[in-house]
Amino acid sequence: MTLTEKAEISKFIIRHAVEKYPRIFAACSFGKDSRVVADLAMQVKPDIQFIGIDTGYEFPETLAFADRMVQETDMKFRWVRASPEARRKIDESYGDSFVKNDQYKCCEMKIPAIESVMHEYDAWITGLRRDETEHRKNTGLMEEGKIAKANPIAFWTKDEIWQYIKEHRLSYHPLYDAGYPSLGCKPCTTSGKIRDGGGRQGQFERAGRFAGTEHAGQECGLHLM
Do 173 and 127 touch, CB atoms closer than 8 A? Predict the structure, then answer.
């Protein structure tokens, strides 16, 4: 299957989700996968709502690129954040530590942030891919949960993501060129390859996420909702 054919299938999935769930948003982290999903989704529905989660611990480069991309594409975008009360409770729970029960504080902030808007929607679109990590290998194109989830690029590979970005001359997050294979919040994201307990380099691009916890290279909890 060519990349062009894959893109058409992805747009079909997005179109199906938009038609079935009029109250829908697309998650946008401003990483490479979100960049591709944004381009595809706006071809289907130019005014689709994009939502990003600001944990308060984003890379400055992420915030700067977000401003640039929103201006470049004229995408309909808004940040969501944990309420002051939720943030206070999390801060008190973590105290002087940034990691508690193998969970980073920045990751903990994501759940109340996204839950604050979930009631407004019936579905969301993500940039999950099956080859990102062992824990995403069974990602479906459409999934059920608190609200429905569409994963239109689940069957793409990392190389195809970069090929699409190059062929369509899309701007992308500058930290990829600095050696970050996967991007999240600053505290829980490490550049380069992270070795597992056996001394072997992580084979998945998310190997640099959540280092030092049992969740290393896995999930922050957002997509386990």
Answer: no
